[in-house]
């Protein structure tokens, strides 16, 4: 029997690779004759860079950059001969700030822009930006600033782009040197939120970046305003772009200013890692994530794996820390059982602390027909 283990991370507990190893240990004990293949996955959010490093044998490139508040920061991205893979969270992530420092009015993606600029100056022509986990809501204008764009107010005074200054921007000046000419910039994201509005970047994500309700409304107004400026300057309308609100609007700003292309993180990762061929090989596919809910089926790892299992008519089983769905799903007529750690652990602390042990035991005892 060929078994493919293809999960996302269990956030706050295990990496996707650790999930794979834990499940594999149980399967080897319970099904010693099975051929097991491990395929740790991600969907463009945090942890994606580690997955790409594993599959594509990339090398790190370390540079001096800036954190979301402009402080010096040594950071790395991954590269090969013609490509660079940059995680926005590495230089512009909310995890870099103390809770009391988080304020999307003052944070900037400038540090991520320095990474992108370094890659372009070194001749990389395929750029991949992973958009999860940002501390910012500057529409990626900080990145653009690092590439040489300048932003001005009504009095032709230079404006440093940040969430709190968005409404001041009236005009944009492009750099003399177009570093991204003949380069292909791909933005990987795991959400489909628009730039502004009820489901936009500010109203859905800014609170977790430290924004109060009044700040959220200010950021949303600023995004609406900059969208109009971008339309005037570039001719690109960013309001209707699915994923344009990703990472505080980076999806919108870079689409308009440098011609970046947004793509679903899972779609890109599955293509880069050859996932579809592995699913075609398997008799059984095991996937999962820390919490399985309705969002899991919309562009996330679990939903993407289930779609491929449906395509190739494969049996599938899901493991999770917890699930808000029924105990099983269906792909066509095939039942997809969902097994959760919270279903066997005495409490949440034990489930998180001993997640690996629980997964191993669940895999060993499960009847995976």
Itemize the secondary structure elements and their pairings:
Layout: E1 2-5, H1 16-30, E2 35-38, H2 48-56, E3 59-66, E4 72-79, E5 83-87, H3 88-92, H4 110-121, E6 126-130, H5 141-146, E7 150-152, E8 171-173, E9 184-189, H6 201-205, H7 213-234, H8 246-258, E10 261-264, H9 265-273, H10 275-281, E11 284-292, H11 301-312, E12 315-323, E13 328-331, E14 334-340, H12 348-353, H13 355-365
Parallel strand pairs: 1-2, 1-11, 5-6, 6-9, 9-10, 11-12, 12-14
Antiparallel strand pairs: 3-4, 4-5, 7-8, 13-14
Helix pairs in contact: 1-13, 7-8
Protein described:
This protein has 369 residues and is an alpha/beta fold. It contains 13 helices and 14 strands. The protein has helices at 16-30, 48-56, 88-92, 110-121, 141-146, 201-205, 213-234, 246-258, 265-273, 275-281, 301-312, 348-353, 355-365, and strands spanning 2-5, 35-38, 59-66, 72-79, 83-87, 126-130, 150-152, 171-173, 184-189, 261-264, 284-292, 315-323, 328-331, 334-340. It has a six-stranded mixed β-sheet with strand order 2-1-11-12-14-13, sandwiched between helices. Strands 3-4-5-6-9-10 form a six-stranded mixed β-sheet, with helices on both faces. A hairpin with a 2-residue loop joins β13 (328-331) and β14 (334-340). α7 packs parallel to α8 (246-258).
């Amino acid at each position: 029997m060929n078994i493919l283990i293809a999960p996302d991370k269990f956030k706050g507990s295990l990496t996707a690779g650790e999930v794979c190893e834990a499940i594999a240990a149980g399967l080897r004990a319970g099904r010693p004759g099975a051929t097991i293949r491990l395929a740790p996955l991600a969907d463009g959010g945090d942890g994606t860079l580690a997955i790409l490093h594993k599959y594509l044998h990339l090398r790190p490139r370390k540079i001096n950059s800036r954190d979301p508040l402009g402080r010096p920061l040594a950071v790395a991205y991954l590269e090969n001969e013609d490509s660079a893979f940059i995680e926005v969270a590495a230089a512009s992530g909310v995890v870099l700030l103390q809770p009391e420092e988080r304020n999307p009015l003052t944070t900037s993606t400038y540090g991520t822009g320095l990474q992108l600029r370094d890659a372009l100056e070194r001749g990389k022509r395929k750029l991949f930006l992973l958009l999860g986990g940002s501390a910012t809501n500057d529409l990626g204008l900080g990145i653009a600033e690092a590439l040489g764009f300048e932003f001005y107010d009504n009095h032709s005074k230079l404006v440093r782009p940040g969430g709190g200054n968005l409404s001041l921007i009236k005009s944009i000046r492009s750099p003399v040197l177009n570093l991204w000419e003949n380069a292909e910039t791909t933005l990987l994201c795991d959400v489909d939120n628009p730039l502004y509005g009820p489901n936009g970047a500010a109203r859905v994500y800014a609170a977790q970046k430290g924004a109060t309700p009044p700040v959220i409304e200010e950021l949303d107004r600023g995004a609406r305003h900059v969208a109009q400026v971008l339309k005037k300057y570039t001719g690109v309308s960013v309001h209707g772009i699915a994923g344009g609100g990703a990472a505080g609007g980076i999806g919108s700003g870079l689409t308009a200013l440098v011609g970046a292309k947004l793509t679903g993180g899972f779609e890109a990762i599955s293509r880069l890692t050859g996932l579809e061929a592995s699913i075609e090989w398997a008799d059984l596919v095991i996937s999962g994530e820390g919490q399985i809910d309705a969002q899991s089926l919309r562009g996330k790892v679990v939903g993407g794996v289930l779609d491929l299992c449906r395509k190739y008519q494969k049996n599938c089983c899901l493991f999770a820390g917890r699930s808000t769905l029924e105990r099983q799903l269906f792909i066509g007529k095939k039942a997809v059982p969902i097994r959760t750690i919270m279903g066997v652990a005495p409490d949440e602390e034990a489930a998180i602390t001993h997640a690996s042990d629980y997964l191993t035991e669940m895999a060993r005892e499960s009847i995976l027909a």
